[in-house]
Amino acid sequence: MKSKRPAVITLTTDFGITDWFVGVVKGVIARLAPESRVIDLTHAVPPGDLCSGAFCLMTGYRFFPKGTVHLTVVDPGVGSNRGMLAVQTVNYFFVGPDNGVLSWALLTEEIKAIHSLENEAYFLSPVSQTFQGRDIFAPVAAHLSRGVPIRRLGPAQNDLVRLRWNEPQATRRGQQGEIVYVDQFGNAITNLTAACLKDLGRAKLQVVLKGRRLCAVGNSYSCAPTGKAIAVLGSSGFLEIAVNRGNAAKRLGLCIGDYLEVEPIVD
Amino acid sequence: MKSKRPAVITLTTDFGITDWFVGVVKGVIARLAPESRVIDLTHAVPPGDLCSGAFCLMTGYRFFPKGTVHLTVVDPGVGSNRGMLAVQTVNYFFVGPDNGVLSWALLTEEIKAIHSLENEAYFLSPVSQTFQGRDIFAPVAAHLSRGVPIRRLGPAQNDLVRLRWNEPQATRRGQQGEIVYVDQFGNAITNLTAACLKDLGRAKLQVVLKGRRLCAVGNSYSCAPTGKAIAVLGSSGFLEIAVNRGNAAKRLGLCIGDYLEVEPIVD
Amino acid sequence: MKSKRPAVITLTTDFGITDWFVGVVKGVIARLAPESRVIDLTHAVPPGDLCSGAFCLMTGYRFFPKGTVHLTVVDPGVGSNRGMLAVQTVNYFFVGPDNGVLSWALLTEEIKAIHSLENEAYFLSPVSQTFQGRDIFAPVAAHLSRGVPIRRLGPAQNDLVRLRWNEPQATRRGQQGEIVYVDQFGNAITNLTAACLKDLGRAKLQVVLKGRRLCAVGNSYSCAPTGKAIAVLGSSGFLEIAVNRGNAAKRLGLCIGDYLEVEPIVD
């Protein structure tokens, strides 16, 4: 074996951690790529929720070493005729079902190749109809991490199924965005980026929901008094609505899909 | 150190992941077997539930590399006079209390040796009365993973405590089985295997519960319309009752221990 | 690379495991210290609960290999002007915010150096205001695990913020302690140590709460009948109140901060 970093494989799934599902995926990887390092991104994607899975992957993938294989199994159509993919970008590999769950991470990654997973030589045998994360995706990720060329996995394809990602819209006063994810602490993450805010200039900004002021935009959670709302440019790179030491989504009744505006505060 | 695969140690426990218990077990293993690779099978076995722990282990153990040490601590009698075991089979090692939790995995593994854990040289010192997972089982698993011969751990014994595993029974029309596990998604897993179904020939099959038809047997969850029940040969190797994108156990009122029959559909 | 044990980095946080936060912390570590071994102590510290985080760390840290870097991020003041620390002791490194969360582990560890984290060369760039676990603490822990001298991280400081740790008090009849942690199984852990009990001599002991006998002190959970209370010297090194196969905190109404006494049973 060459003296190099062990390959990293990340896992993003809706398998939960109550049963043995994640464990056996790691067992399969340990058999095929014993020197790899497996890191859980999350296994708590709500069952079959493609947008939540896509957002977790989009937010997390770039913090991993170059060459990491990002294995993503949120697969409500397992056993149906949906496609299965491996994608090679300039920096990473992505493996998963062709149902859009990979697509948000690939908005900003330069794609080099997309191949359909059809070569059964890289699958477990037999393949079950209900757990292709174990039988197909995990072995494929393990083989990629060991340097198997992506072209061997199956025929190239031109594009993949993409989930719609709404871009923020300029409004009369500012920028309109929407809530795209609510984290476990109740922080409501929007699709508004640092660039959107920069476009609004140096004025102090506020967030408006359904015509009513929600909160100011600040630098950190602790800019607001305990229990009060604040919008901050979060660690995910997006503006998020938080309540200092509280649960913003519950307190303010915020849901995925809610539209809101960021605009300068007029004194 | 020889240039070989790092040894794998799996963990199956009822420790939960809220406190530090799993972490310190891994700390003890890292001290004694720093090159090993530890993989969680699950830590969410219901406290003291030997059958659930035994089923997780039985379903998961075979997906790991040859030589893996399967450490299983579901141990309601910790500190009492129940025995403690290491078992060597043709393919694996198993370590845990002698209370039956290892026994279902050993139904199909050829046993080479069973030794009682009595040699304190392979324990932490001192040994607590309440956390022998950390003080006895973890160090023993670490030592086995490094090649310590099993005979050094204590005297050989002939057999181990076994949990009852009910085999399916032939009925007038088909096969009677029972529900043995309900996973976190509500899929109700039975003790009926592919072989049981094969015995029923090529006819289309259905599942009958208490004299009423429950659902058809199909190839995948998505053979049923969304929200409808289907029985599929699951990834665990057993027939399981599922509801496409739903929770079968809740929807259909299924519980561990319920008997059901699989029989040909008569047109 | 020298032929030595891989460095261990433990994680103790209130990040939860539902979102991608823990995963990206591990991604950052994998980039900077690819040969390290990361072990979760817990990610289920209640959000911002410094005492629970401090107790988990205090109870768990000593089971890890010498040289382990204990990374602890319970940081309700993230983005405020609270300090950030690395501490080197005779056996370990500790990294975290200077808010007391490290202080209970350091009650019994001999401190060799404390340095403030100010050298941005060892941070990610840019540093977010809301996720310094990823941007500051994780990279610092990774660098320490690779042998970067602690003095390079920033200026030395003399002490750290300390949480109050109440010592048990001698009473007329015995020792008064208090409940300091309730684990997920409902075991109520006190600050009473083996040494406290030893001071009470060889008599049989009992636990008294608000003037009423709660239970006897025994050797193991199973000394009490199923469903009955027992106090045992727990695996954490402290006396804990348990109910054999039950939840002591719920059954007996025990809370963190409750005072109780241990005293000899007078026949």
Brief descriptors of the model:
homotrimer; 267 residues; alpha+beta; seven-stranded mixed beta barrel; six-stranded mixed beta sheet; 5 helices; 14 strands; 30% strand; elongated
What does this structure look like?
- The structure is a homotrimer.
- The model of chain A has no long low-confidence stretch (mean pLDDT about 95).
- Chain A has helices at about 20-30, 50-60, 130-145, 195-200, 250, and strands at about 10-15, 35-40, 70-75, 85-90, 95, 110-115, 170, 175-180, 190-195, 205-210, 210-220, 230-235, 240-245, 260-265.
- Helices cover about 20% and strands about 30% of the residues of chain A.
- Chain A is of the alpha+beta class and about 270 residues long.
- In chain A, helix 1 runs parallel beside helix 3 (about 130-145).
- Chain A is built from 5 helices and 14 strands.
- The longest helix of chain A has 14 residues, at about 130-145.
- In chain A, strands 8-9-13-12-11-10-14 form a 7-stranded mixed β-barrel.
- Chains in contact: A-B, A-C, B-C.
- The interface of A and B includes residues 26, 31 and 76 of A.
